[in-house]
Specification:
By secondary structure, this protein is of the alpha/beta class. About 30% of the residues lie in helices and about 25% in strands. Helix 8 (about 270-280) runs antiparallel to helix 9 and helix 11 (about 330-350) runs parallel beside helix 13. Bound molecules: adenosine-5'-diphosphate and magnesium ion.
């Protein structure tokens, strides 16, 4: 084992200082041989170079490098623990001795204490432990039963990582419903072009076309999707106004209600076409607008005599993409509200399989400030969904703007680079076990490295996300051709 330094100063039970004789990087795993428990795993959380060069001498240095400077590399390590006879992770209850040797931890020890398993039956392979050849798998049962958040700034790699997770869920035949506001996930059908990174991570390229269903409230804009239709008779007039894109409730709610009453009295099985005809027959500006917007609804196939059947929408072991590209924000909220309620109700009754509901751009659907039509149902699912096998995964670039009660219900966090101070604050205050050092590291994470907390692990770990088996759909658009 390679010795890297010695413990010095006051030694605590959670962390200790060490004087480093060899260069070690922040985040590296270390070990100390404890008299009672054998090798204990630790992690370097912070580093500092101390020197005797004070301000005055620095000023006198001029251009000369000849002045002797005494310096020491100091580290702060946090103690992760050891596995006891029963396989449980324990932390020594007596502090290490000052002067004790500190070594670089070897991979078997890291794997054992962190609990990294390969190819477990319930594992989703998401990447490798950073700077090590150890695979990181997330426990699928934990993911679905205990909710997940994926947090990073825009372009941080959230959708890419989520794509990796969905690939794994599909390999394990876990049912998923993905709210996809940008229409990015259709590319899960297509195998990725192979490159050297695939070999390094042991990933085969593979498309999942057979397991992908795609629905959209706007099939004109999203022709690869089947129409997502809601039942006209189960849509109250206020929601109908939203579907019609009419925000002026005061002006239009009354006339619309009268129209529906009149048409419904004559024919209880009325259709959107019947409403259009009745509006045409009437007079006035309000009816004219209603007619025009009803025609739009008719074209979009958003409302029909019967809605899209749940059995078509949710298929066991498949992923359903709800492509909301180009759909107005208030219609998006209403679609999510209706879908999420239907999924939750039917999941409670056991009519659909346990599933993983992914909400991309979740700060729009469950905002911390203000209300979205779907806020309440998403909060309900966050607090109660786990009891019924409805796992929620919220993805957001604004951790500070998503409802705190939703965020705090997520027991697995996948955090990529975050730089906004408000978002960092929201993250560090909602996640247990994050050290100051880790919070600092989150700001400098390269694309493709995630900090994972929860997911079956008792300590946060940095993971290099594996390459996608499928093509990534969220490539940024080049504004100027190369
Ligand atoms: N693990 C990764 N490996 C390689 N490239 C990645 C990885 N994660 C993200 N990228 C690249 O970074 C860009 C932004 O990723 P994306 O997931 O779309 O960001 P976000 O959803 O957070 O806005 C994409 O073009 C993608 O190709
Ligand atoms: Mg994205």
């Amino acid at each position: 084992m390679e010795e890297v330094g010695r413990i010095f100063g006051d030694v605590g039970l959670g962390q200790f200082h060490l004087s480093l004789s060899h260069p070690v990087e922040r985040g590296d795993y270390l070990t100390v041989d404890d008299e009672l428990h054998g090798k204990v795993l630790c992690q370097l959380d912070d580093l500092k170079r101390k020197s005797d060069l004070d301000l005055q001498r620095a000023g006198n240095l001029g251009t000369s490098d000849l002045v002797p400077i005494h310096e020491n590399l100091l580290g702060l390590a946090r103690i992760i623990g050891y596995r006891d006879g029963q396989g449980l992770v324990k932390v020594p209850t007596i502090p290490f001795r000052p002067g004790a040797h500190v070594f670089r931890a070897d991979e078997p020890l890291i794997a054992e204490v962190l609990g990294l398993k390969h190819h477990s039956a319930t594992g989703a392979y998401v990447g490798m432990l950073r700077n090590h050849g150890l695979k990181v798998e997330l426990d699928i049962n934990q993911l679905v039963q205990r909710h997940v958040s994926v947090l990073a700034k825009s372009g941080g790699g959230k959708s890419y990582l989520l794509g990796v997770m969905v690939e794994e869920l599909l390999r394990h035949h876990v049912t998923c419903v993905i709210i996809d506001p940008h229409g990015e996930y259709g590319s899960l059908r297509v195998a990725a072009e192979k490159n050297g990174v695939h070999a390094r991570f042991g990933v085969e390229s593979q498309g999942f076309a057979k397991q992908i269903q795609e629905y959209s409230p706007d099939v004109t804009l999203n022709p690869s999707a089947k129409p997502l239709t809601f039942s006209l008779h189960h849509t109250d007039p206020r929601d109908l106004l939203i579907f019609m894109g009419l925000t002026n409730v005061k002006t239009f709610l009354g006339p619309l209600k009268q129209l529906i009453e009149r048409v419904g009295a004559a024919n209880p099985d009325y259709t959107v076409k019947d409403l259009i005809r009745a509006a045409e027959a009437g007079e006035g500006a309000a009816l004219e607008t209603l007619r025009e917007r009803l025609e739009y609804v008719e074209e979009s196939k958003l409302l029909g005599p019967v809605g899209t059947s749940l059995n078509d929408l949710v298929k066991k072991g498949d992923a359903t993409l709800v492509n909301l590209r180009g759909v107005a924000p208030d219609v998006q909220e209403l679609v999510v509200a209706r879908l999420a309620s239907t999924l939750f109700e039917n999941r409670k009754k056991g009519k659909i399989p346990p599933l993983f509901l992914v909400i991309e751009e979740a700060h729009n659907f469950a905002p911390q400030q203000g209300q979205a039509t779907c806020s309440r149902i998403l909060k309900n699912i966050a607090s109660e969904g786990r009891k019924f096998g409805l796992g929620l995964c919220v993805v957001t670039q604004r951790a500070a703007r998503i409802d705190k009660s939703v965020l705090s219900q997520c027991n697995t966090q996948l955090i990529l680079q975050v730089t906004n101070p408000l978002d960092l604050k929201a993250i560090s205050s909602s996640i247990e076990g994050l050290t100051d050092g880790m919070t600092e590291m989150i700001q400098g994470l390269p694309v493709g490295v995630a900090l994972i907390t929860g997911g079956g692990y008792h300590t946060p770990l940095f993971c290099e996300v594996r390459p996608r088996a499928t093509r990534h759909g969220g490539e940024s658009v080049a504004i100027v051709a190369a």
